[in-house]
Amino acid sequence: MLIHPNFDPVAIHLGPLAVRWYGLMYLAGFLAGAWAARWRIRTQPWLHWTVEQADNFLTYVVLGVILGGRLGYVLFYKPEYYLFHPWEVVAVWQGGMSFHGGFLGVVLGGWLYARRHQRHWLEVTDFVAPLVTFGLGFGRIGNFINGELPGRVTHLPWGMVFPRYDQLPRHPSQLYEALLEGLVLGTLLMLFSRKPRPLGQMSALFLMVYGAFRILVEFTREPDDFLGLLALNFSMGQWLSLPMVLGGVFLWRWSKKSAIMKGDKQ
């Protein structure tokens, strides 16, 4: 049995200002994504992106993640609470972000960017799909540092006690998610991007694999205490991920059919 190190969630104290590890992990994810965008632009000329265009688009991504992540948490997880405490919606320092909300925020941001700059929407989502995985991986590491969102009780040798939560050994599900949604999915998408792909295929692969990984890991993750398990003993995270998998399958089939109709055999 392992014991969580019980890190101080504040990384640096600068007078009255507290710089938290979770915020630093978000920053690391954005910086890593920006670096990966430049690498793709340099090594994959068929993308037809410039560094200036990527930097402009990443502004939309950052706003989509923050606004969508917060509003997603409010609407998906605690709508009744925030209905009677609307002033707390902006209190992001108290915690409460939703990946699925952030994902929808990025999708909307991509649509706005595509419309404004006359690009196909799927061309934009194909570009950003591998970059999102950096934020996913670093974000889950931030959850682990904070000792939050622990897994379900387990008696496996690597079961970990999270003292801020309780004294029971639990799955370090934050690390499972960092590994699968960050490292494995990111590596898969970056390798898949090494040659031109039909429009929409990169986005489809992201949806299918992320959704499958999230559904799988949720079986080891403690459900939110204010929600518990829902229909079919699925958590909210699993129910929100299921449409991603189905949408990814549909998009993959559409992408292949569209490529064949255009004579693209890649």
How would you explain this protein's 3D organization?
- This protein is mainly alpha-helical and 266 residues long.
- The chain has one domain.
- It is 61% helix and 6% strand.
- The protein contains 8 helices and 5 strands, in the order βββαααααββααα.
- The protein has helices spanning 21-43, 51-76, 79-84, 99-116, 121-146, 173-192, 201-218, 236-261; strands spanning 2-3, 10-14, 17-20, 160-161, 169-170.
- Strands 1-4-5 form a 3-stranded mixed beta sheet, with no helix packed on it. The protein has a two-stranded antiparallel sheet with strand order 2-3.
- Helix 1 packs antiparallel against helix 2, helix 4 (99-116) packs antiparallel against helix 5 (121-146) and helix 5 (121-146) runs parallel beside helix 7 (201-218).
- The mean pLDDT is 88.
Key attributes of the depicted protein:
6% strand, 8 helices, mainly alpha, 5 strands, 61% helix, three-stranded mixed sheet
* Sheet with most strands: strand arrangement: 1-4-5
Main structural class: mainly alpha
Strand content: 5-15%
**Overall pLDDT score:** 88
Number of domains: 1
Number of helices: 8
In whole angstroms, the N-to-C terminal distance is: 49 Å
Could you spell the SSE succession in H and E letters? EEEHHHHHEEHHH
Low-confidence residue ranges: none
Roughly how many Å is the radius of gyration?
19 Å
Label the overall shape.
globular
Sheet bearing the most strands, described?
A: 3 strands, mixed
Number of strands: 5
Please estimate the helix content.
55-70%
Multimerization status? single chain
